[in-house]
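Lecture notes, continued. The same structure-token format from the folding unit now serves as the input rather than the output. Read the line below as a description of shape only.
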């Protein structure tokens, strides 16, 4: 679809709208191109009788917007100074993406942010073919072409170095090329490109960016996705208000639930004794140990999560020795894993060395990723932690609807997405309590939960099929006495907390859908190239319909 905007005599912008959108500025028989979404763009120019571009400007570098490669050999291609490697140095890009977690002490500052990804998962991708970059720009610079000026303005949010261009003629701003900051309908192009680190997105910062943009005296926005926006400031302000409304919605509470104070549990070294035979690591790690009357132990998620400590392996062994001396532990003969993040099972080899008869069990999909993490583009996989092993074999593959037995104790497996799609929970009755081990999907110290889609590269959609809404819809029907989550989290009042969390998620979900085109959260949150098989595999059809 082609649109032509005449901004002044002998000044037109021809917009070709396809999968994405490219804009050709035509002046005095010459042209300048903003982004290039199709390798066939030159053919379109020929059909339309339009001149080939002398300059190509890129609001940001990503495969779908940088497809000119060498098709315009006379054009000067300009990109952001910080995006040169991404645009044209494939070898440098590949070196930068082969990451391992070398400085765990920096986690509190970076939260896994890397040059082109998050926690070992690539989130920024180069063009299919390197660009012949002729020059660079930075925010605040003014690019002159003929008698036109393109002011480079910061539009952060959609990628790390995203900019816009304000087109001026004789000092008068006429249009703004907004890249993928937003699209027509006052919507965000997607949510996955807003990811800034392992636990956060740029969403909170966007209202200020949008309001600064709307304050400029320009009505027409040329977006890089979808049609031209003729009422740009109005839509920018509407989107800013919608984002603010979403942030208010996720803080909403019904008033029907009040958290109970946490009991003062007795301590055994680094562990808390939460109930007879139930011990949980209390250093933000993930180890949960059940010890039966015979001294047999079951550990969930053998990952102490203390990577900054040079004695972490020794500390793990000391913990086990203390449980043996003071709590009657004779051996741990089973370890069960909730999800594939390395901090939840990296000590499994050490556990098996101490207890050679220990078997490893995990839900089907979790087991697949544990045994072949290199096949998946997920973040925080075991190899990223650089702990000396790059995968762990699984002895027992658990399945939803099929109880697994540990010395006569039935353990039920349920799919518990939200923190990531490939995530399970395990329910069992032990010493008179109904326990739920919920990993990082339900990770509370007694407060209710809401929507959290910060770890977008985990491909979890906060809906009733594959995300946090589904999880609480399942859990609210379970009679759980004690919920044991990841990183030392635990709580009682389980049914009431689950119900309040469900109310909060249902309240906020429409506000989130309002932010993306057609309310399609799958398209907004599932990054291209992320696996789709878990959502469509036949074994999930019955489960997804619950």
């Amino acid at each position: 679809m082609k649109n032509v905007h005449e901004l002044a005599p002998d000044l037109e912008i021809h917009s070709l709208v396809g999968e994405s959108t490219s804009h050709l500025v035509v002046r005095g028989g010459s042209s300048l191109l903003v982004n290039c979404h199709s390798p066939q763009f030159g053919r379109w120019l020929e059909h339309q009788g339009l001149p080939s571009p002398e300059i190509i400007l890129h609001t940001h570098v990503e495969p779908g917007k940088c497809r000119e490669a060498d098709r315009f050999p006379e054009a000067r291609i300009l990109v952001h100074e910080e995006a040169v490697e991404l645009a044209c140095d494939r070898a440098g890009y590949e070196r930068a993406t082969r990451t391992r977690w070398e400085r765990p002490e920096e986690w509190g500052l970076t939260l896994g942010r890397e040059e082109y990804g998050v926690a070992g998962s690539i989130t920024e991708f180069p063009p299919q073919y390197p660009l012949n970059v002729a020059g660079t720009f930075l925010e605040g610079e003014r690019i002159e072409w003929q008698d036109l000026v393109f002011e480079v303005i910061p539009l952060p949010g959609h990628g790390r170095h995203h900019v816009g261009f304000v087109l001026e003629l004789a000092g008068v701003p006429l249009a703004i090329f907004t890249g993928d900051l937003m699209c027509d309908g006052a919507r965000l192009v997607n949510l996955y490109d807003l990811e800034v680190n392992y636990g956060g997105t740029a969403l909170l910062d966007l209202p200020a960016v949008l309001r600064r943009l709307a304050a400029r005296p320009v009505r027409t926005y040329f977006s890089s996705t979808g049609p031209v926006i003729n009422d740009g400031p109005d839509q920018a302000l509407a989107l800013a208000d919608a984002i603010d409304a979403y942030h208010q919605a996720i803080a909403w509470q019904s008033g029907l639930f009040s958290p109970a104070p946490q009991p003062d549990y007795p301590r055994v070294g680094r562990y808390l004794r939460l109930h007879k035979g139930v011990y949980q690591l209390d250093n933000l790690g993930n180890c949960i140990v059940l010890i039966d009357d015979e001294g047999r132990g079951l550990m969930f998620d053998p990952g102490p999560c203390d990577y900054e400590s040079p004695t972490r392996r020794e500390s793990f062994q000391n913990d086990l020795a203390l449980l043996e001396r003071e709590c009657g532990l004779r051996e741990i003969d089973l370890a069960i894993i909730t999800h594939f993040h390395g901090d939840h099972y990296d000590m499994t080899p050490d556990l098996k060395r101490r207890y050679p008869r220990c078997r490893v069990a995990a839900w089907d999909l979790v087991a697949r990723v544990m045994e072949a993490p290199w096949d998946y583009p997920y973040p925080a996989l075991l190899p990223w932690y650089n702990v000396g092993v790059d995968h762990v074999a699984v002895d027992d593959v658990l399945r939803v609807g099929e109880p697994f037995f540990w010395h006569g104790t039935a353990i039920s497996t349920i799919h518990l997405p939200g923190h990531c799609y490939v995530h399970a929970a395990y329910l069992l009755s032990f010493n008179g309590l109904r326990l739920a081990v919920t990993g990082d999907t339900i990770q509370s110290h007694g407060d209710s939960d809401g929507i959290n889609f910060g770890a977008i590269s985990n491909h979890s959609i906060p809906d009733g099929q594959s995300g946090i809404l589904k999880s609480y819809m399942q859990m609210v029907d379970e009679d759980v006495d004690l919920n044991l989550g990841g990183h030392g989290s635990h709580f009682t009042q389980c049914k009431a907390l689950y119900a309040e969390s469900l109310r909060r998620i249902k309240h906020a979900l429409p506000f989130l859908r309002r932010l993306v085109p057609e309310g399609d959260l799958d398209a907004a949150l599932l990054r291209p190239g992320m696996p789709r098989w878990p959502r469509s595999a036949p074994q999930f059809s019955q489960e997804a319909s619950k």
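Point for the exam: The radius of gyration is 27 Å.
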